[in-house]
Each structure stands twice: as C-alpha cells, then as structure tokens.
Write a structure and sequence with these properties.
15 helices; 336 residues; mainly alpha
Length: 336
C-alpha cells in the first residue's frame, strides 16, 4: 500500500495538534533554575510554546499545523488554527521566548533537537508569505546564531536515535538556511556534515534501542543526501549501506514493536517507524529509477507506515508529537 496525505488524514492530524499545542499540562520542562525566582510554570516561561508536554513538541506541533494549513487552506480546522496563532504568535510573546535564551542557564536549552525544529518551523512560515515569519524572526535568528556558535565546537557527531542526534538537527536547520537565504549557516551545516560523515562505511546499524525515535543510520543518510550532489550521494550510500539489495542490515527493514504506548519512552518506537519511513522515502527519491534498491526502499517505507500510522492518535504520550513525524513521511519526496 502506498500512503499519501489526503484531506481526511490532514484533518485528523490538525485536530490532534490543536488538542495539545495550547494544553499546558502535563509538562516535562527543560529548565535550569538559577534561583527561587526561576520557579515558574510553562506558560510564564514560554508564552508561545508552552503546550504539547514539552517545548520542542509544541514547536513541531505548530509546524504540523502551519504545514497542513498551507496544503489544505479550506480544512475544517483552518479557522481555529488561525485564531490560536493570532493569539499566541505576537511580538511580545516571541520577545519573551527570545529573552529566555539569553539566560546563562539556557545555553544548552533544547540543543540540538529543538533548535532544528524551530528553524524548520521558520522555513514553513517563509512559505506562507505573511507577517508571522517576521514576528518569529528574533527567535529564528537567535537559534540560527546558536547553531553558528555551537557547530565549530562540535568535533564529533551524536549518533543516538533520540533528541541529541546531530544529523536530524542539521537536516532540519538546512530547510531554513536554504530557503531563508542564510548562506553562512547552510555552509556550516554542510561542512560539518561532510566532516563528520563523508568517510563512514559499512554501517552495522545497531538499532533500535528501547527509546529511539530516529534511526541513526538512515538519518545520517538523509542528511548526506541533502548536502551532497546526487552522483556523489549515490556513491557514498553504496559504501555506507552496501547490502541494501539483500535487505541488510535486516533491522532497518523490520518495523519496531511497541509494547506499551502509555509509556512515553517506549512510545518513541512508533516515531522510529514513522521517521524510518520518511528516511526510506527520501533515500528512494535519490536513487535512479531503474535502481532495484529504490523499490526495496519504498517497500520498507510502506511497511513502517503500516505499523505506525494507526497509532498516531489514541494515547497522549504519542499523540502530542507523532503527527509531525507522520507528516514528514507522507510528504517525503514532495519538498526539499
């Protein structure tokens, strides 16, 4: 079965995201306290991104909503999305979010996962052609500066399949850097990706771990697809995963099982299946039409979507974030 985004699915995802981007509690905060005055709630600290269980999920919940609004402007949820965005995306609220980053204690806040998602959100707003991209710009610029300050210090990549994965963050950051004309950030991301990964060969793919929602192997490949010319990428990929034609390493072709979707960490594995589907589709799009690995990659993507799409909604531990990864997978090949 070939999965595609349709109006009904878009409405389902939008309804789910509207149910959590302004839901303040429960909330898992990434907040370092310097003193008693810092004991404040999510909305007081983050007047835009206070919902969705954690800051980064709220950011990509809004990416989901704005992406769906652009693709389906007449969807039933469109009015609610616009009204809530008008309420929250104000210059005053964005200034408060930006000021939070200026705290010395916030240097490592959401690094690098939330950084990448904020820039991905900015890239989506750039496609809308309205004032919201300008409203968000102080925060966008602040996170772009964070990447520019941090990447020269990052001698090594982080290859885990969780929030610290550097390939995922750079892949998202490049959407903004390229579409927003930040040539310095784009060059830095490309330089670091090539420095970290251009020599990688014969990946063993020791995955998944119990709480991963990203494939370290496939995410690296998707980043390299973005930073390399097509012929160079195909040569690199043939050396990086040389046995795809035999469906090896086998773990990359087998959807992960999820034993308890009420456990937030175990529920990450639904996200792994969705993000693998995204990666396999992106990789397939980079292979030539007559390459037998292309069909193998697309088949693997469909298997992972079959396993995960029914579980995007249903339990809040997954519902507050999974639609974003489902959307990445369903749109793969239709955007950069």
């Amino acid at each position: 079965m070939t999965h595609r985004l349709d109006a009904a699915t878009a409405s389902r995802f939008a309804s789910a995201a509207l149910g959590h981007v302004a839901r303040e509690y429960p909330n898992k905060m990434d907040h370092v306290l310097a003193g008693p005055a810092d004991v404040r709630g999510p909305r007081a600290l983050h007047p835009v991104f206070f919902g969705s269980f954690d800051w980064h999920s709220c950011v990509h919940g809004w990416w989901t909503l704005f992406t769906l609004l652009r693709l389906y402007p007449d969807m039933p949820e469109a009015g609610r999305i616009g009204t809530l965005a008008d309420e929250l995306f104000t210059a005053e609220n964005v200034a408060a979010e930006t000021a939070y980053l200026a705290r010395p204690e916030s240097r490592g806040f959401e690094r690098p996962y939330g950084w990448g998602w904020l820039l991905m959100l900015a890239a989506e707003l750039e496609r809308h052609g309205n004032d919201r991209v300008a409203t968000l710009r102080p925060l966008t610029d602040a996170f772009a500066r964070r990447f520019k300050d941090f990447l020269p210090l990052a001698d090594y990549p982080v290859r885990v399949g969780t929030h610290y994965n550097t390939a995922f963050a750079l892949r998202l950051a490049l959407d903004h850097a390229d579409s927003g004309g930040d040539e310095a950030l784009a060059a830095l991301c490309r330089d670091r990706a090539l420095r970290w990964h251009s020599g990688d060969r014969d990946c063993q793919a020791w995955e998944p771990s119990q709480d991963e929602f990203l494939s370290p192997a496939l995410m690296e490949a998707v980043l390299m697809r973005r930073v390399m010319e097509p012929d160079a990428f195909r040569a690199w990929f043939a050396a990086f995963l040389p046995r795809v034609d035999r469906r090896e390493p086998a773990t990359l072709f087998q959807p992960a099982g999820v034993s308890d979707r009420s456990d937030g960490k175990i529920a990450h594995l639904d996200g792994l299946n969705l993000s693998r589907a995204w990666c396999w589709r992106e990789i397939a799009a980079a292979l030539e039409a007559d390459d037998p690995r292309r069909g193998i990659a697309l088949g693997a993507a469909d298997m992972h979507l079959d396993a995960a799409l029914p579980h995007v909604t249903g339990d809040y531990m997954g519902e507050h974030w999974l639609a974003s990864f489902a959307l990445l997978a369903l749109l793969a090949g239709t955007h950069p």
